[in-house]
Write a structure and sequence with these properties.
This protein has four helices and no strands. By secondary structure, the protein is mostly helical. It has one domain. Helix 3 packs antiparallel against helix 4. The relative contact order is 0.08.
């Protein structure tokens, strides 16, 4: 291969584009035989902590999308029932009302399950941290 092609492959290789760090001295993430660099431990802690916030925000965003969809179905069905004179449109409106309620209930159930799973995972991590003598969520 030519020099340019080799540099191009190194700059734009898939691991680099995916954010996977390249090995340093034969070890990934800057690991050495003495252990991990303390600044990298701090970086991992901050990244993991922010990942928890992103997960909480994603759960809220998902619940709001369920709520928006349920409201659209319910409101559309109500409008069809109230303002339509055609019997098929009125029937379709009556069918949309319970669909909106079912979507809302499904969204609430999903939100409760996801919050419960996240809290259980946080509890596991906290217990593991206590076993090592460190607290992660203080």
């Amino acid at each position: 291969m030519t020099g340019w092609n080799l540099r191009f492959q190194k700059l734009y290789s898939w691991p680099r584009l995916r954010g996977i760090p390249e090995p340093v001295n034969g070890f990934t993430n800057g690991d050495t035989k003495k252990g991990v660099d303390p600044s990298l431990k701090r970086e991992v802690f901050v990244r993991d902590h922010l990942a928890g916030y992103r997960t909480d925000l994603a759960i809220r965003r998902t619940f709001l999308s369920y709520l928006r969809t349920a409201l659209a179905f319910f409101g559309g069905g109500l409008a069809m029932v109230r303002f339509s004179g055609h019997p098929l449109v009125t029937l379709f409106g009556w069918l949309l009302l319970p669909v909106g309620i079912v979507i809302l209930v499904q969204g609430v159930i999903t939100n409760i399950k996801m919050n419960r799973d996240v809290q259980a995972e946080k509890k596991k991590i906290e217990e593991a941290g206590r076993a090592k003598g460190k607290s992660l969520f203080d």
